[in-house]
Amino acid sequence: MHQGKTAAARRSSWSARLLALAVLLAGAALWSAPALGADGPPLKGQFADRFEMPDQPRPAPEVTFKTRDGETVRLADFKGQVVLLNFWATWCAPCVEEMPTLDGLQHALGGEAFQVLAVSQERGGLSTVEPFLREELNLRDLDIYLDSDGALAQAFGLRGLPTTYLLNARGQVVGGLEGAADWNSDAARALMQHYIDQGREAGVIETGG
């Protein structure tokens, strides 16, 4: 009984944060086309209880972050792809635990239709993140993105790491999850594929992407 209340409180808190994100972005322009995800995605395994969704997709914050090469980008630059946005840091044990699964997901599905954006919160920047990913964890498929000043994390109202959001191909936030997860599981791949397929059906993702 106590566990049920705790889970309910967690879901309520997460939903409140998504609502707060919507309020924060109330002035942003919404897509006039019908929202993707209307049929509801398959939520299986760990995602059945932990993946939280707003009533309607929300616009993503227009906050900049950096690529490995120092280029300034926004989430809007990735419209046309389904994006799994993961906030992490080298000092976060659960982040490190799930990082190989994010790399595996990127290896399996990454391309013109889908991309994992693993955005580091490391204040040490590239000099800390790159050797950690490439040498210590031996990960090759994830690109490096940096939010060293925490601006993007603050725009999303993060409470802790890791936190992961899913954006549809129109660049809208369709859900999220706090804590580590197996992102290379069949359940995770099915969730990503659902939004990839919807993006293609809506003409937002090119059929061959």
Automatic annotation (TrEMBL):
Molecular function terms, GO-annotated: antioxidant activity; disulfide oxidoreductase activity
PROSITE patterns hit by this protein: THIOREDOXIN_1, THIOREDOXIN_2
Keywords for the protein's UniProt record, in alphabetical order: Redox-active center, Signal
Signal sequence segment: 1-37
SUPFAM superfamilies named among the record's database cross-references: Thioredoxin-like
Top-level taxon of the source organism: Bacteria
InterPro entries, A to Z: AhpC/TSA, Thioredoxin-like_sf, Thioredoxin_CS, Thioredoxin_domain, Thioredoxin_ResA/DsbE_sf
Pfam families with a match to the protein in the record: AhpC-TSA
Domain (Thioredoxin) ranges: 54-197
PANTHER family on file: CHROMOSOME UNDETERMINED SCAFFOLD_47, WHOLE GENOME SHOTGUN SEQUENCE, THIOL:DISULFIDE INTERCHANGE PROTEIN DSBE
Protein name: TlpA family protein disulfide reductase
Organism: Rhodovibrio salinarum
